[in-house]
Amino acid sequence: MRLAARLAQFQRFMRQVAHLSLPYFRSDERWKARGLLLAIVLLNLGSVYMLVLLNEWNRVFYDALQNKDAAVFWAQLGRFTYLAMIFVAIAIYRFYLTQLLQLRWRAWMTRHLMGRWLQGHAFYRMELGRYAAPSAPGDAAISPNGLPAPGQRVPDNPDQRLQEDVNLFTTQTIDLSMGFLNAVVTLVSFVGILWSLSGGFSFALGGHQFTIPGFMVWMAVLYCVVGSVLTHYIGRPLIGLNFEQQRREADYRHHLMRVREYSEAIALDKGEQAEYRSLDLRFSAVLANYLKLIRKQKQLVGFTNVFGQAAVVFPMLLAAPRFFSGAIQLGELMQISSAFDRVQGALSWFVDRYDSLASWRASTERLTSFEAALSKSNVPPAQVQPAPAATNIAAIQADDLSLQLPDGTPLVQHAQLHAAAGQHTLVQGPSGSGKSTLLRGLTGIWPWATGRVALPASTAVIPQRPYFPDGSLRDALAYPAPAGDYSDAALRHALQQALLPELASRLDDRDNWTQKLSGGELQRLAIARVLLKQPAWVLADEATSALDVAAEQLLYQRLQAMTEQAGGALVSVAHRPTVTGFHQRVWRLVPEDDPTGAVSGAARYRVESEALAPQP
Ligand SMILES: Nc1ncnc2c1ncn2[C@@H]1O[C@H](COP(=O)(O)OP(=O)(O)OP(=O)(O)O)[C@@H](O)[C@H]1O
């Protein structure tokens, strides 16, 4: 790659780091953050200063040894104790304050990203977008919805980004930038020392005498430039391999989690072998990449070790002639060796940190793409415009509502819908025609939608697969409100009304309710939640499909009574004819190209709204 391109890439990377880092140092925690950063910088500078003092100590101490000067020897040992104590105190506080800043930064950044991930349905839209088949290039149907443009990679495993990458990023940004600062300051301090000690290197060429001043400095620079270039050359593939390793590990972990989540279904399907194969495939991918990674690391470890060992003898080789000729004393030789060691150490900072730099870059890239996806997903979909006074309306209204699939395929076309208070509506249509998606469109969470929707504020939704958090039953019932918002009596009454009297005495039991309860019990628990909250409007998607007819009838009566009393109505998706009698109107999804409505899977549907004849 050309140098200019490399430089541009480096600049882009530094911009990414700044973009991810600056918000914390400008946040409401900024004074604590900046204060800690300043303290760490000062402690780093202090530790370099101590090294300079210790280097100077080297000369005096070894000269005393050579001169067999016992008085200076003992005095210098005393001085060393005092220098070492300050050095240790600085090291302790440098470590502690660095950790503290990393911890605070991680906490702030995690909470910040977690908040944005859960805001404006970004977490939902990012999941939808991941499975969205890219449309044809140039198709703008997807991108304006805050979803990835066709062909754009959707960040996978947000859990990895929030839990692992934020930690890696904050830790490494501080460690590496402080390491860099240390290296630069050490370099500047010790290059001066080395320059003053090293003397010139004279040689004759074509009858002329030449002298290179600061010979040792140039040798150290040459040594490290060669080392850095070779390290970069050997270690470059590590960046991609590290990135890939973390991605594959996260993918494997994600599939392990899915087996846990669907353990029962897998056991019933006797899917153990299939799961083993699929998990093993992912684990093998982890191992295969890891093997490549350690082979590359082996080369790098080999090189850096040779480089480090050679650095021990290299300055001795160069300075020995002057020592044996009597030009310098033992103290100066030791000081040169230690100064060369420092200069070489600072210059080879890049060599030693190559591995960390590679993983820093990988986590920065992953956080940047996550952040970019969040920024897109945090923008609410522009297409569906909620009615201005959405809070006080007494009807559900949709004007010209059209819904598409993620790949842009039209689903429901130009629906004109109105559900008046007290008038319960049934949504019917073939399987896969878009009934659930119509409810998603009405609630405003479906991003591939256009039109105008008005939904009363007091609306609750019962989805096909309701969610209950792990924890106590009262938490599951009150979700997402805190359980403390409801009295025990209200919670028990709701459970009894939803035909779950046996659970009324178990409000404080903690469990994985989604796994533990039967399908019918889960549906009744979802209805209990709605009965507890008493909304005026209820959008129910197959809310009673697992119940017996008698229970279904009783629960429909209760939901009806509740919504009517609160000045709203029910809108329900249901296949069973037994619930038809609870509704006065039907929204029927009819295939555009098959007016009988018999064929499911047709691409486009229109919604016909008509009154239902009263049932006998
Ligand atoms: N996230 C998604 N990505 C891609 N396609 C989707 C997504 N969600 C739904 N669909 C597709 O949209 C169509 C409508 O789905 P929807 O769940 O709304 O149908 P439905 O009428 O409620 O079906 P059923 O009666 O079987 O529950 C289906 O073909 C479905 O595969």
From TrEMBL:
Its main location: membrane. SUPFAM superfamilies: ABC transporter transmembrane region, P-loop containing nucleoside triphosphate hydrolases. Residues 38-359 form the ABC transmembrane type-1 domain. Keywords: ATP-binding, Cell membrane, Membrane, Nucleotide-binding, Transmembrane, Transmembrane helix, Transport. Residues 396-616 form the ABC transporter domain. Signal peptide: none annotated. It is a multi-pass membrane protein. GO terms for cellular component: plasma membrane. The chain crosses the membrane at residues 35-54, 74-96, 180-203, 215-235, 300-320. GO terms for molecular function: ABC-type transporter activity; ATP binding; ATP hydrolysis activity. It comes from the Bacteria. It is found in: Cell membrane. The keyword Transmembrane helix applies. This is ABC transporter ATP-binding protein.
